Amino acid sequence: MNKILIIATVVLLGVVTFAYAHSQLNQKEGTNKETISQQSNKNKIGKGVVIQMNKDLYLKNVADYRNIKEWKFKGNLPAVIDFYADWCGPCRQVAPLMKELAKEYEGKITIYKVNTDEEKELATAIGIESLPTIMFIPMKGDPQVIVGSADKATFKKAIDQVLLAKPAR
Hints:
Elements: H1 2-44, E1 50-52, H2 55-61, E2 79-84, H3 89-104, E3 110-115, H4 120-126, E4 133-137, E5 144-147, H5 152-163
Parallel strand pairs: 1-3, 2-3
Antiparallel strand pairs: 2-4, 4-5
Signal peptide: 1-21
Domain Thioredoxin: 27-164
Family: Belongs to the thioredoxin family.
């Protein structure tokens, strides 16, 4: 009986040690992945791709939503932010349009997307209440918003007029 108890204790200690070591490794890998992700996002700005945005990237590249006194855009290019959720049908219709627009306006604007289920604090702070919500952020002036799905022509018109200051056709 004592042998069984000793063997069970050794096995249990081995399992606990393995689980702890594995969790520490995962935490370290997660930190490395986050750093790599942040670096790769930095290299993608204005490069014709849609960039997945989190709260930290928003604070760094867009604005400090904690400062409600004054809007100050931090970006180097005008931006579009697509606030979406994976379960949202209209959001899924907008996603491929954003990818096309990112390619078409490469070097002129940056397009981001924010998963509101994963970034609840950010979405709440900005006041996102309906999905999809598309925010157009010019270099100067206040952001403009389209709530709900729209076609590519509508998004292009908003980009041209709000972000690139081209006259209406």
